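User: quick one, sequence for these tokens?
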């Protein structure tokens, strides 16, 4: 059986104040902003900056980038103070970004089966999520659910996070099966794409944390 500790919770894809405030109020550990224009949760650096000031110091902020250039990241950091950079890129590129910007970097790691699971972590954390469909227009945030059973015997010695298709009514089961030390949700706490539901945020955080204490 997995050994549980406190479960970290990341709410990703914030676009508006009500959702952001709910994340802070209900104790999310990380609040994520998507800087990828094809996402329905895309925000500009200026929008992210306006939101981050609402909960300064009460939750860590994460910026999500897809195959970014250094200029892409620098442009965002000129406006928005981010604590973590989460990127879709190669392991080599992720390591380079960490060196250039001096911030913790999380590498999104889409998988299709146990053979795809990473054996090491080139940066501060990896996010395990389902590999997107071939016709997907974005690498993540597609509300796909991972086959959690593929993680039941996986025991990495580095920090990681579970993402993909998590919701209020399944996050506890996901934590129990996978032993995930942290979870990431976006569409699972929304009333519409990019619009977070405060009640769902509260329930998701509560259910995740209760699973960690079970």
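Assistant:
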């Amino acid at each position: 059986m997995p050994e549980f500790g406190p479960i970290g919770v990341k709410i990703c894809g914030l676009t508006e104040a009500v959702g952001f405030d709910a994340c802070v109020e209900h104790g999310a550990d990380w609040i994520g902003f998507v800087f990828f224009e094809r996402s329905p949760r895309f925000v500009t650096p200026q929008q992210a900056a306006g939101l981050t000031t609402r909960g300064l110091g009460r939750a860590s902020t994460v910026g999500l980038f897809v195959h970014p250039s250094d200029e892409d990241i620098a442009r965002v950091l000129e406006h928005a103070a981010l604590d973590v950079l989460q990127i879709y890129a190669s392991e080599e590129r992720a390591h380079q970004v960490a060196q250039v910007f001096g911030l913790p970097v999380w590498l999104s790691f889409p998988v299709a089966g146990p053979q795809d699971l990473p054996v090491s972590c080139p940066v501060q954390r990896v996010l395990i999520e389902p590999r997107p469909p071939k016709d997907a227009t974005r690498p993540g945030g597609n509300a796909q659910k991972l086959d959690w059973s593929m993680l039941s015997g996986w025991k990495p010695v580095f920090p990681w996070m579970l993402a993909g298709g998590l919701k209020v009514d399944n996050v506890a089961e996901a934590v129990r099966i996978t032993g995930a030390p942290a979870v990431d949700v976006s569409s699972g706490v929304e009333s519409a794409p990019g619009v977070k539901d405060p009640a769902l945020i509260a329930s998701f955080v509560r259910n995740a944390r209760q699973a960690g204490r079970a």
